[in-house]
Structure formats: C-alpha cells, structure tokens
C-alpha cells in the first residue's frame, strides 16, 4: 500500500473542543516522529530531486522544515527556491510559487507547465498544494477536482518515473482572544472592499474537495493529508466546527497567527510529517 501521512488511529473515542467550542466524538490519533525514521531513509532523501509548488502556507511549511533541519543533523536536504526548474542542478527540494491565489485552476495549470518545462530534468517526487483562499461558497468544487484529477493523470502518464503526491487543502479557524477580534474586524473591512477573507464556514468547501481526494486516491496513490494534520491537536484530539448540523474539520487555533497561515508551532508540526513522508517515499 502506498505510504500515506495519515495519523494512525487508535480505538479510543474522545470528546473534544472544536473551533466553535462544541463537543463531538472523534478518534484520537497519534503521529509518527522524526526519530522513527531510519538513517538510511534520510540518506536516500538527500539524493532525491523533489518539486513542490505552493504559495504562502507552503512557505510556512518550508520555514518549519528549515528549523527542523537545524535541530536534526541527521537530515540532509537541500532546499532550493527556483522559478525555473533548470536553476536546480543538484538533488534537493525545489520549491516555487504556483498560480494565483483564489484561482485554483491557475495553480493546476502552473504546476503542469513547471513539470513540462523541467522535462529534461525529471524529479523523483513532485506535488503542489492548493490553498484555503482557493475555496469559498461560490466554488464549483466537483469541477475543480475533476480538472485537478485530469491534469494529474496526464502528468502521471507523461512522467512514469516520478512519484506524484496528492495534498489536501489546508483549513482555517477563527483565532481566539484579541487575535480573533482583530481577524473579525479585518474580515469586515475586506468584505467591504471586495477582497477574499479567511471564512471559517468555507471549510465545508475545502472539506468537500479533500473528501473527493481521499476517496479517489486513498490506497491507490500517495497522499499528504495536510488538512488532517492541521486539524489534530498535539494530544491527538481533533478540532472541528458545526455548520447546518454537520461537523467539519478546522485548523487548530494554536497552530496559526491569523486563522489561516501557520505559526512556528504549526509550521514545525506540519513540516515534521512532511519530512517523514518524503523520507519514506525516498526509500521505495
């Protein structure tokens, strides 16, 4: 079965505090640790070329990785930012801006273009992520997923030696305390001038996309379940909110400084699972 960075679920059911302060029974989860990865896997990772397309949350993850690399000398991974794949001539994680925020179709097209431009220098592993701002109440989620699925299928056929990873869409929450009031005020201003906001309620659209991805690829391809990691507290409990009588995962408030982007804590938690995924894929 393909390696997936889903948390290992135990049989213990717990009630947990969600983003909206409600209670709900969810499975408690435990996460693998960097110390669980053998030295050979880190050595293999150091020899791989990896493409990662993203925007701001991706930079949060990259920052978390850089912090973990400083703290864990056994992990040797070059991190290279390159607008053009030809700029990266050595093994490492090659990351780049992809598309325009609020336009998921542009990100799909930009990732395809980057892969095709690097045709002569094909990566071992490649993936990109959409962002929370790419989904709102107006989103046609089935169409976005259909276009994503079609593009990835074409890339898999064109690059049979590359392992493509599918990344779930990150989530949002409403920060607590003063930060929460500040975010609400900013959202009102942005709405007044027609700019996108980090709307907690839009997690239902993100959830819809993520469920389509899980249904399509679980057990068949490699998934980095970013949304699941973001919605899991460090003690294994899950964060959620309720909408129209249904529960939806949301970002753990402790992991963010503004309700959408990751703070130092959240960045390192996500980056650790990200590195573990890459190490395991490199050992296939």
Short description:
This protein has 284 residues and is α/β, with parallel strands linked by helices.
- Kindly state the mean pLDDT as a whole number? 85
User: Which overall shape is indicated by the principal axes computed on the Cα atoms?
Assistant: globular
Strands in their spatial order, largest beta sheet: 4-5-3-6-7-8
How many distinct domains? 1
Based on the coordinates given, report the CATH architecture: 3-Layer(aba) Sandwich
In the CATH scheme, the class would be Alpha Beta
- In the CATH hierarchy, the third-tier topology is known as Rossmann fold
pLDDT below 50 for ≥5 consecutive residues: which ranges?
3-18, 20-26
Major sheet size, sense and barrel closure: 6 strands, parallel
Commentary on this structure:
With 284 residues, the protein is of the alpha/beta class. The chain has eight helices and ten strands. It has helices spanning 39-45, 56-71, 104-117, 141-158, 177-192, 203-217, 226-230, 264-282; strands at residues 8-15, 25-30, 49-54, 79-81, 92-97, 125-128, 163-167, 222-224, 240-243, 246-249. It has a six-stranded parallel sheet with strand order 4-5-3-6-7-8, sandwiched between helices. Strands 1-2 form a two-stranded antiparallel sheet. A two-stranded antiparallel ribbon has the order 9-10. Strand 9 and strand 10 (246-249) form a beta hairpin.
């Amino acid at each position: 079965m393909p390696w997936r960075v889903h948390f290992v679920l135990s049989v213990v059911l717990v009630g947990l505090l969600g983003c909206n302060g409600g209670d709900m029974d969810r499975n408690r989860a435990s996460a693998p640790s960097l110390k669980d990865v053998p030295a050979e896997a880190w050595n293999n990772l150091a020899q791989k070329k990896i493409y990662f397309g993203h925007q701001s949350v991706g930079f949060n993850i990259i920052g978390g990785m850089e912090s973990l690399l400083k703290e864990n000398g056994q992990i040797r991974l070059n991190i290279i930012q390159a607008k053009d794949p030809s700029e990266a001539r050595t093994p490492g994680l090659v990351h780049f801006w992809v598309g325009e925020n609020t336009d998921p179709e542009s990100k799909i097209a930009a990732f395809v273009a980057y892969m095709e431009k690097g045709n002569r220098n094909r990566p071992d592993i490649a993936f990109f992520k959409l962002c929370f701002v790419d989904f709102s109440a107006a989103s046609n989620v089935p169409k976005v997923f259909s276009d994503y699925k079609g593009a990835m299928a074409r890339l898999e056929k064109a690059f049979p030696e590359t392992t493509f990873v599918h990344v779930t869409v990150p989530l949002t929450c409403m920060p607590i305390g003063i930060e929460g009031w500040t975010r609400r005020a900013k959202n009102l201003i942005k709405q007044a001038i027609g700019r996108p906001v980090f709307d907690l309620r839009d997690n239902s659209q993100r959830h819809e996309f993520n469920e389509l991805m899980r249904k399509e690829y679980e057990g068949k391809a490699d998934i980095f379940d970013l949304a699941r990691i973001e919605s899991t507290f460090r003690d294994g409990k899950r964060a959620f909110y309720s909408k129209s009588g249904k529960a939806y995962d949301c970002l753990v408030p402790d992991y963010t400084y503004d309700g959408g982007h990751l703070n130092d804590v959240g960045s390192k938690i996500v980056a650790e699972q990200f590195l573990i995924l890459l190490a395991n894929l490199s050992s296939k």
